Amino acid sequence: MQHLDIVFFAIVAVILGWKLYSILGRRTGHERQIDPFARRSRPDKAGEGEAPQRGRTIERDEPEAPIQIGSRRPDGRPNLRPVETRPEPTGPGAAMQPRDRRQLEAEIAAAPQSLRDGLEAIRRADPAFNPVDFVAGAKIAFEMILMNFAEGDAKSLQPLLGPEVLQSFTAAIEERRRQGHRLKTNLVGITHVEIIEAALKGSQALVTLKFTSEQIDVTEDAAGQVIDGDPTRVDTLVDIWTFARDSRSRDPNWQLVATQSPA
Fold first, then answer.
1. CA angle at residue 140 from 139 to 144, to 5 degrees?
2. What Gene Ontology cellular component terms go with this record (predicted)?
3. Which of 67, 76, 141, 189 is most enclosed, with most CB atoms within 10 A?
């Protein structure tokens, strides 16, 4: 009986082995390897590929860079054009809006011949001179000079002012300080700037500008009481300033050399 049991179990083992072989097959070494950590890409078309399963995140491919599309060609296909790159403007005029530049250029072109001749003479002496950029820089200087004068900062005014104007401004600051007064200036905005004169005298370039601005100017005493001006009123003021620069100098900065009020 013992020998019969051994033969019986041997037959059962052979039958089970044959069944497993028929179901699983044989490994040939060329089976496709599956990497469970591999990145899954998005199907090229809707409905293709494996549908996302609940609780699993599918990585998406990076979007392609946009292409600028121009007008269509006669055959109906889009005309693809590369994106044009323009150099960024530099200098004081970089912050000026294109509309303001065109307006200023038109004003200069329509200016009297004597003014245009003066600007051209300065440009010949200094090829880097550009009237539009000059006006943009003068607007910045106008604001800096007003603010430094109101704050009584004579040291910051020195590189911006010529000797005579610096002496006049410094005297006014010292007198204000002696009386214990304080000037508060709020430059609401510069509404217009116009070149009214330009000349080259020897090597000295001179350009006179007419500034129209809106300001709130208030003078207070030592106790903080308003003694001049109205903090609620915006005044429209006109200033005529003349800037100068030695065209032979390596220093590109202009200085305020004269101020006057309109007649």
1. 120
2. membrane
3. 141
| pLDDT one-digit tens code per residue, 13-71 | 555 555 544 444 444 444 444 333 333 334 444 444 444 443 433 343 444 443 333 33
Helices (H), 72-195: 98-109, 113-125, 131-151, 154-157, 163-179
The answer to whether domain 92-260 has CATH 3.40.50.300 is no
Kindly report, residue by residue over 98-140, the tens digit of the pLDDT.
888 999 999 999 999 999 999 999 999 999 999 999 999 999 9
Distance CA(109)–CA(152), nearest Å, equals 39
Task: Report pTM.
Answer: 0.64
259 class by beta-carbon count within 10 Å (0-12 exposed, 13-18 middle, 19+ buried): middle
For the record, the structure tokens of 111 come out as: 């200016």
Q: How far apart are the first and last CA of the chain?
A: 139
CA dihedral (119, 121, 122, 127) in degrees, to 10, reads: 110
Burial 125-155 (b: 16+ CB within 10 A, else e): bbeebbbbbbbbbbbebbbebbebbbebebe
Q: Which amino acid is at 155?
A: K
Q: Where are the beta strands (DSSP E) in the chain?
A: 69-72, 78-80, 182-201, 204-220, 226-228, 235-246, 255-260
